[in-house]
Amino acid sequence: MSLRSTDSPEQFTQTNGDTLRVPSTGPSEAASRCTSRVTIGEERVHKSELKEPMEGTLNPGYTPYPKHVFGNAAALGLAAFSITTFTLGLYLAGAMGITIPNGVVGLAMFYGGAVQFLAGIWELVSENCFAGTTFVSYGSFWLSFGAIYIESFGILRAYDGQPDQFGNAVGLYLIAWGIFTAMLMTITFKATWPFVFLFITLDMGFFLVAAAFMTGSSRCLTGGGALLTISALCGGYSCFSGISTRENSYFVFKAMSMPIWKKPSKTKIIGL
Q1: Which pTM value belongs to this model?
Q2: What is the rounded CA–CA span in Å between residue 271 and residue 11?
Q3: Which residues lie closer than 8 Å to 55 by C-beta, 6 or more apart?
Q4: Each residue of 37-46: pLDDT tens digit?
Q5: Residues 42 and 202 sit within 8 Å (Cβ to Cβ)
Q6: How many secondary structure helices (H) and strands (E) does the chain include?
Q7: What order of strands is seen across the sheet that includes strand 18-23?
Q8: Which of 52, 123, 179, 258 is least surrounded by Cβ atoms within 10 Å, i.e. has the fewest?
């Protein structure tokens, strides 16, 4: 028996002098099978066997399902991030005439800080390295930021009579977080639109608020607060998309995937 490939969607099998038509997948179907696979390490895996990129689980790319069965801690981490960032963003933007941000300290320490930190630990246990790194880091940010305005830590007291040094010190602190956020942002471009906008607005917000502390510019402070508020809204969307399903809600926020920019393959695929 001999078998030969053709460019038609059918193949011909020669058996005992008789020619039989055997249905075969055409080039488009074969190409579809190839493009529906991704490389994890050195292994090619079908996308249906992997977790899709989704902001609601803070998953920036196709990844294997975790071996352990846990709840979605990413949704909790996103809620802690969003509510705390939303509140601080409005304070910094001057909403309701508020100029002193100390009202967010309790929220920063216990929800944005402690709860988000614990959510990150849970994500690390669930083998989600990106979510774990992100939540543990930003949970630590909120704890450290809140500590600045707690008198017993003595941070503000150390700068008594030197407001310029305090502004520059906090500005450098925020710039460091802006650089870290920019690094994380580069990992999100294969994920979803809300995911990307969350990190872009958060990153720009860090730099604007840093500029406000270092220069005393009220415009930078207002703009930074507005950007942080937008970032928080993106986080809220992401949180809801991670917990809403058709079984528990009439309103389901879908993941809006980013387009994948990739050069088309020039390899000619022949039906097998």
Answers
A1: 0.73
A2: 8
A3: 191, 192, 194, 195, 198, 234, 237, 238, 241, 242, 255
A4: 666 666 677 7
A5: no
A6: 9, 7
A7: 2-4, 10-15, 18-23
A8: 179
